Amino acid sequence: MTLIDTAPGFRDVLRVLGAELGVDFPVEEMTAKLGPPLDLLLADHLPEAEIGPAGDRFRALYPDHAITSVPAFPGAHDALAAVRRHRGRTLLVTGKYPANARLHVEHLDLDIDHVEGWVWGVGKAEALLREGASVYVGDHVHDVEGALAAGVTSVSVLTGGCTREELEAAGTHVVLDDLTDFPAWLDEHLLDLRLAALEADLRERGSLLVAYSGGADSALLLAAAVRALGPDRVAAATGYSDSLPQAERDPARSFAESLGVPVLTPRTHEMEREGYRANAGDRCFFCKAELIDVLTPLAAEHGYAHVATGTNADDTVAGFRPGIRAAAERGAVTPLADAGLSKAQVREASRRWGLPTWDKPAAACLSSRVAYGIEVTPHRLARVERAEAAVRTLLAEAGVAVRDLRVRDLGERGSVELDAALLAGPLAPGSALAEQLLDVVRRAGFDTVELDPRGFRSGSLNDALR
Q1: TM segments (predicted)?
Q2: Which runs of E-coded beta strand occur in 153-232?
Q3: 200-363: what CATH class?
Q4: What pLDDT does 451 receive?
């Protein structure tokens, strides 16, 4: 990446070097388009025999005259953070002396994984290929040469002296005004790449039965499969059981039917699995095992080649996910994860496609509300469902919008988690509405109830596993 404005420091070092050598370097001219190796810049101003020693002296002077005076370009840190947000690595490939390049990195606290110095033009391709780069950001036509030689996407910024016309003539794929534009470009670029990978993957599958909950992930997968394969080669399957809230069923069916695909609603019997009822930390393994064991023969019966889940790329690195393991052991495919689509990208793609689920809150199964070690029973699940429905009704009547809500079953004690902002407002402890909320949860079947002061936390019951 082109991260720092080296011109001020470069000019200072040239002036000091010129004074030592008795040479009046045309400093402004020499630093107008930085990028070429130092030896090339000195070649027009020194005898050939003096270029090497002068370069050595320049590099020796550099730390004292060109580190503290050199700023990062606007947007540099945010650009690096954008790469990290997408779980990428950052590689600095530069014509500069490696030790001095590292000093810049340390002084400006730049989040860089690897520094490769003393490479220029097409010579940068070797480092880009070796480190597995997919995008190279530069500001010089020779940076474009390096990117193209490596077969990676060339992104150019207009902060190094080369004009847009020069960079485009060199073959760059993208020109940005500066690094402040990079995070948005990267978001769009990666989403386009991953959606293309998803489409290619789905086309290869031929036909698909989507394990469909109606949430954002499985809804996007279903819509993408219809786009890639057509509705006649795709079906949605929703396992109906005590753990699926009634309120989720009709909206899920309506969306799937709007895509023109069949909707299958087999009964699943996870409650008959001892490991599920026992509700240890691996409960989700038994739930997913039951679902895939039901859907696999159903897919074969209806002529679908694969059973697919809406597992996304974030899920695969989120730590303890026994349900993912159960599905993988049974041969379910995960097209969203395979394409690298994160949860944020799932939502952005859904928004782009106009899917109503793009901002739908996460809606985990009812069993996820029951604390580990407490047996999962139809009674407990029904009690949680009644309590959550009563809370939503109460808040709607009070004109209070709530996005995330969970009633946790902690035995005979209930705990209500909802948007933290509400706890500093209409649901402040001791307020009339807060007391009414606790009362409707008690009436749903809990002996005692508390309003969790920490607010909603996805997977909060997993804290007990740690």
Answers
A1: none
A2: 153-157, 174-176, 208-211
A3: alpha beta
A4: 96
Where does the pLDDT of residue 31 fall: very low under 50, low under 70, confident under 90, or very high at 90 and above? Answer: confident
Q: Residue 465: its pLDDT value, please?
A: 58
The residues, any chain, with a CB within 8 Å of residue 59's CB and separated by 6 or more, are 38, 97, 99, 100
Beta bridge partners of 418: 405
Mean pLDDT to the nearest integer, 54-73 = 91
d(CA 391, CA 414): 13
**Who contacts 367 (Cβ-Cβ below 8 Å, separation ≥6)?**
243, 276, 279, 283, 287, 376, 381
Percent of the chain whose predicted confidence (pLDDT) is above 70: 98
Q: Give the integer Cα–Cα distance in Å for 407 and 448.
A: 12
According to CATH, where is 3.30.300 located in the chain?
367-465
Query: What kind of fold does domain 367-465 have according to CATH?
Result: GMP Synthetase; Chain A, domain 3 (3.30.300)
More confident residue, 457 or 105: 105
Q: Where in the chain is the domain with CATH 3.40.50.620?
A: 200-363
- CA–chain centroid gap for 361, Å, is 17
- Give backbone dihedrals phi and psi of 280, rounded to 5 degrees, phi first: -80, -175
Residues 232, 238: Cα–Cα separation, whole Å = 18
Place of tokens 């474009």: 144
pLDDT tens sequence across 112-144: 999 999 898 899 999 999 999 999 999 999 999
